[in-house]
Amino acid sequence: MILTLRKIMFLFVLLFLTKGVxxxxxxxxxxxxxxxxxxxxxxxxxxxxxxxxxxxxxxxxVMHYNPKTKKVSAFPNKSWNSRSLDNDHYLDDVLGIRNDSxxxxxxxxxxxxxxxxxxxVGWNTKKNRLERIYYIPRPASRPSSQLNDFVxxxxxxxxxxxxxxxxxxxxxxxxxxxxLDMKTGVCRRVLEGHYSTIPEQTPIVVDGTQLNIPGxxxxxxxxxxxxxxxxxxxxxxxxxxxxxxxxxxxxEDLLENKDSVLSLKVEKYATKDNNGGFSIDKDGNLxxxxxxxxxxGVIPVSTKKSFDYAIxxxxxxxxxxxxxxxxxxxxxxxxxxxxxVFNNGKDLTKSPFLIFRFKPLQKGIxxx
Length: 368
Known about the structure:
By secondary structure, this protein is mostly beta strands. The protein is 8% helix and 37% strand. The protein has three helices and 26 strands. A four-stranded antiparallel beta sheet has the order 1-26-25-24, with no helix packed on it. The radius of gyration is 20 Å and the shape is globular.
């Protein structure tokens, strides 16, 4: 068979692109901070705002990182990070955090520390004032809810929250998605106990050791966790932390159908490893934090086959990952597996704690 010059060039380009997509990179350390970081968002100046991982019971729930001084401070201020006996206008227990396109940083307060009603708190970083509080009461939340990550659909004024269902003794089996209407404040719970929101029997194993519920030999199993939305706000991608499958559903179907119909609309999209957060770029490539590998994985839209992309031995328990306007994705390294509760009472974490960044395959979506 004789290959024409055009065919040879096509095969060369195809081979080059394939190698480029699957090439591994080493992320760079962007910042060193005093506490383990959970999730990351950005203020209107594109400076980092992040949650201190609630697993370590931090005194300051959310912090701002000043890139000039390289110092951290309480966000939005000390008052919001101090418990009040008069009202619930404070941050109690925060992991999920995202920013919108208008410079509002939204913080998801799980309320588990003080047993208060979960809420989504928006802080306008341009005007330095409270934007709004949305409450997530029962039955949208449950006593066992651990409302973790979320995504904002600004075209519809909708927030979709992943509920891991591991709070207050929960075992993940009532994992669900919670839909919050930002126009009305009404929220509702969907896909509770659905196979796409509950954990699979895939224990977390790090360096050969299984991560168990403290004091037991039972593995920690976490429900719906990572969640993201494509550029057109058409497809919602999500997955349980413990599990090998990424699921997706059309936002239109999520909002318009009851559970009996909605459950049939959910699609299995791709396979993955146990993971924490998700992000996505403008082409639809998914980025996932592989907590067992110290790695960021990529699921290309072209192949839907996951590969390890950004790897660093010190990126221990990468959790939240999101895109900034400078062209980088930023990711935390919480060192959760080094906590005393998993190491016979001995704290093996090493300070300072790290925030990494890396260039994605394509441009991402700010704050997503």
